[in-house]
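User: Predict the full complex structure for these chains.
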Amino acid sequence: MKTEDLIAGLAMEPGFPGPRRMERKLFLWSGVGALAAALLTVLVLGPRPDMDQIAGVASFLGKAGYTLALAGAGLWLARRLGQPGARAKGPLLALVLLLVGGLIATAVELAMIPAGERAAQLMGHSAMICPLAILGLGLLALCPAMVVARRLAPVRPAAAGAAIGLLAGGLSATAYGLHCAETAVSFLVVWYGLGVLATAVLGAAIGARVLRW
Amino acid sequence: MRGGERAADACPAGGGVTLPVEAANLGSNGVEDIDLQIQSLIALSQAGDRAAYGQLLALMAPRLRAYFNRRLQDPADAEDLVQETLIAIHTKRETYNPALPFAPWVYGIARYKLIDHFRRRGVRRHVPLEEAGEILAESDTEAGATRADLNRLLARLPARQRGLLEDVRLRGLTIAEAAPRHGYSEGAAKVALHRTLKSLSASVAADED
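Assistant: Here is the predicted structure of the two-chain assembly.
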């Protein structure tokens, strides 16, 4: 067919959409998944027992702040990686800052308590369950986000998939925080971080297959 | 090309947009600020103007054709890639952020399609990352360069070097013609030009990092 005819055909459809439509869609659909994860957490696992106390709410909010920041970095990164010609420097820097900041906070927290209590502090009561729960709940956000992400145009599909996984993992970690009563910073950084990382790795594996275009 | 035919089937011929002559023949007046024109076409298209969208695609086609023709032996392959890239521009148009320059976005898509083409052929070929503005500068109708992107780079040069470079590389003067206009001897102009291009490519490389 002739290229002019192709152009005429394409121009029958609406042209460029308004700004930030892609971000909104990713946010909306991963948010729907996150709500489902939150609902599942509260209904099946049950809310953390200290949720009726200020300390409990404060602990939840603090953890949520960190995991939402990870999700935000994931959204930002996915948007950049999904846009030909865009640079991912900004979101990568944000991610590195979050990780380095978390590790520093972990080191400081562990350094301030007696050596004999460090292992107990780090392991908490649910170190083995936490990453698995976050990965499992993460699937609820990962699936819709990945479907929307198929509209992106990533030059590196696996990397974009990892960013989508980071978004989903950060959201599911936030949802899991509704249940998990662990308060240690080190626990958050290490075990929540591991759950988010696992979701990102899964996202990379899926993205390498489904985000090609 | 199959993808193209599908798109065409969905939109029967006859109802196509008519492309104003300015858009199709942009090449004839090389001084057109193409970046500005692209931005206004995108803004119009965001406001629902489909003719503007068609104009934008028509503006891209010869540039993509030149880009692929330069890199492929077979013009039929190049034309297939032009169509594939136009379709990709269309299906991925949501990913373009209007706050950013258009050239790198189009270039990114074209390059991805070119790499994809080599991969499908089983050819192992390195496709170097070039200055994205090239894609707008290249056109088989010898259209205007990407003034905005280019100006940004040129603005970093000292005025004299910049003038020399513009005369030689953009206006097509010979070094012998251009040198006296900027107070260079012919030999000095050659050296200056060489240094200028080197520092330009260094600053482009720095931008890429």
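Chain B has two domains: 2-146, 156-208.
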